[in-house]
Amino acid sequence: MSSAVLARMSRARFFAARPVRSFVVSPVFKPTTAAAPFSSASRRLAASPADDPHDPHHEESFEEFTARYEKEFEQVQDVFELQRNLNNAFAYDLVPSPSVITAALRAARRVNDYPTAVRIFEGIKAKVENKNQYEEYLKELQSVREELGVHLKENMYPEAS
């Protein structure tokens, strides 16, 4: 193309009429026929927090804790899940019940993790308040230990105790 043609094209575009924009503003708020009821009170206050076990501030009872962790340990499929559940269970300010410990020991043997089964008893020893409580746990869990073949660290390494 020649420069004259290009100049004519650019002038034609420059002087071409542009479409006019519509300046009609659409309403932001649409009027409603009925207003929704308003309340400054929270819906959560209507029901007692003890009624909702999924409430993050719900105080879990010892029985609920025991049932939850028994179920968790029954569903363990690998070592990671086992150790994560043990870490969570022992993180609370309580000693897990013998039924939870039994479920944890069975889970440890199911995933073939003998060292963790032995360390469960070390965790109990660290969590209890005195030696008598530890002895009670050992007496209660004696049959499970024999059934699963779990030895105590203090029996395997008496000089380390």
Automatic annotation (TrEMBL):
Compositional bias of kind Basic and acidic residues: 51-61
GO cellular component: mitochondrial inner membrane; respiratory chain complex IV
Region (Disordered): 40-61
Gene Ontology molecular function terms on file: metal ion binding
Protein name according to UniProt: Cytochrome c oxidase subunit 6, mitochondrial
Function description: Component of the cytochrome c oxidase, the last enzyme in the mitochondrial electron transport chain which drives oxidative phosphorylation. The respiratory chain contains 3 multisubunit complexes succinate dehydrogenase (complex II, CII), ubiquinol-cytochrome c oxidoreductase (cytochrome b-c1 complex, complex III, CIII) and cytochrome c oxidase (complex IV, CIV), that cooperate to transfer electrons derived from NADH and succinate to molecular oxygen, creating an electrochemical gradient over the inner membrane that drives transmembrane transport and the ATP synthase.
Taxonomic source organism: Passalora fulva
Pathway(s) the chain acts in: Energy metabolism; oxidative phosphorylation
Bilayer topology: Peripheral membrane protein
Localisation per UniProt entry: Mitochondrion inner membrane
Composition skew (Low complexity), residue ranges: 40-50
InterPro entries: Cyt_c_oxidase_su5A/6 (IPR003204), Cyt_c_oxidase_su5A/6_sf (IPR036545)
CDD domains tied to this protein: Cyt_c_Oxidase_Va (cd00923)
Protein family (similarity comment): Belongs to the cytochrome c oxidase subunit 5A family.
Subunit record text: Component of the cytochrome c oxidase (complex IV, CIV), a multisubunit enzyme composed of a catalytic core of 3 subunits and several supernumerary subunits.
GO biological process: mitochondrial electron transport, cytochrome c to oxygen
Coiled coil, from the record: 124-154
Keywords for this protein: Coiled coil, Heme, Iron, Membrane, Metal-binding, Mitochondrion, Mitochondrion inner membrane, Transit peptide
SUPFAM superfamilies: Cytochrome c oxidase subunit E
Cross-referenced Pfam families: COX5A (PF02284)
Source lineage: Eukaryota, Fungi, Dikarya, Ascomycota, Pezizomycotina
